[in-house]
Amino acid sequence: MLRRRPPLLAPPELNDRPLRRTLDELRSPHQLHGLGADRTRASWKAVAELLHATGQDWDRRVHRISVLAHALPANVSVRWIADRPEDRDALTVRAYVQAARAVTEGPAAAERAGDACLRAAAAYPEDPTPWLALMLLMHSFAAPTSDTVPVWTEAVTRDPWNRTAYHQMLRYLSPRGHGTVPDLIDFSRQVAIQAPHGSPLALLPLAARTELVAHRPRGGPPMPFSPTANGTDPRPPGRSTRPWPSGFTPPAHPMPKHSPTSTSSPSP
């Protein structure tokens, strides 16, 4: 008799070994008291060192902070801010933590999270991460797309082909978000066409298809990838009725890569 294999679930940190080591340190029993495993090292220092090593690799920085925001013990970002109130990495981590958790805490928490995002953005103007935290917050509280596009534009102005930025907008344009099937398809297709050679965003249409399949109505028929009944789209490649969210023009060229050396350093 054939046995059904359990699904393979990737951990949120994927294959990021430095992030995995940081998470393992944070999960130490002693972290419950805000201290490292040796009881003398503040737990936030592991996060500070990780983000310092990340530098201005914005894709990696956003991914690491987004994973940490859901995994950090509640006291870590609080203690980090208390110890280093002007540290821009601390401000950004706190903003993402508050944005990720506000949906379970109510409107007052959402207002505090929004203020934290704007403060982090002011502290580190080059960083797209606070704007993506703000966009996550807006999605959680069903802000309309017209309000979200300016925030998304702030992020992609700083890092034009940031993967998280486009995946977040894809969620917004999904039928389960604030868009429609044609919105989702056209956006993913146009991003894939215009993304730089070798960019993982070339696979955004696959993410769009996964979104449609995974979130179709329960018991309903599979949703086609394109608006036509047979699953094909008669429109020529590169032409779309709604290629980008209203108010945004995609960058003509990718932004030059930043130096891997960050101007922020972990506090001693």
Can you describe this structure in just a few lines?
The protein is mainly α and 268 residues long. Helices cover 51% and strands 0% of the residues.
Beta-strand content: under 5%
Give the beta-strand count.
Answer: 0
Helix-strand makeup class: mainly alpha
Question: Which value, in Å, is the CA radius of gyration?
Answer: 20 Å
Specify the overall morphology: globular
Compressed to H and E, one letter per element, the order equals: HHHHHHHHHHH
Biggest sheet statistics: none
User: Would you tell me the overall average pLDDT?
Assistant: 79
Cα end-to-end separation: 60 Å
What is the number of helices?
A: 11
- Helical content stands at 40-55%
Low-confidence stretches are 31-38, 226-243, 252-268
General description of the model:
- With 268 residues, the chain is mainly α.
- Helix content is 51%, strand content 0%.
- It has 11 helices and no strands.
- The relative contact order is 0.11.
- The C terminus is likely disordered.
Helices, strands, pairings?
Blueprint: H1 17-26, H2 44-54, H3 58-71, H4 74-83, H5 88-101, H6 107-123, H7 129-140, H8 145-158, H9 163-173, H10 181-194, H11 204-214
Helix pairs in contact: 3-5, 4-5, 5-6, 5-7, 6-7, 7-8, 7-9, 8-9, 9-10, 9-11, 10-11
Task: Based on the model shown, name its key terms.
268 residues, mainly alpha, 11 helices
